[in-house]
Design brief:
Elements lengths: L17 E5 L5 H13 L15 E5 L10 H4 L1 E5 L6 E5 H7 L1 H12 L5 H6 L2 E3 L8 H4 L7
Parallel strand pairs: 1-2, 2-5
Antiparallel strand pairs: 3-4
Helix pairs in contact: 1-4, 3-4
Amino acid sequence: MDMNKAFYLRKEDRNPQWRVMDATGQSLGRLAVKIADALRGKDQAMYTPHTDSGDYIVVINLAKIVLTGNKWNDKEYVSHSGYLGNRKVLKAKELYAKDPSAILIKAVKLMLPKNNLSKQILKKLKVYTGAEHPHIAQVGTTQVSA
């Protein structure tokens, strides 16, 4: 590689890998940072901001994730449809009861850049509450602890 030229990762040169991250005992925010960096490819030497150079991430054991302090009752997820009086507030405990993977997906989504690439990057995140996942063929037998 010539050091006098800028490096840009081409789409055909990227080589995404499949990684498994175990959420057992992990804090929600710290795990989301690691996942967002791996999805974008920021933890690799060949990082290019305007291309999708990250890996596929499979998160297992989401049921054992930890929220510190009193965040299960205090953390709020707010949505609004645009109509008057249609502001909906869900506590973290209620959102987790409704869809356990939504808490982690929302945390990772907010840590990605707000551009056209973020939707494509978020599709590479697979979240499962238990230890089993259907991506054994892609991942192989190796597991990466977060």
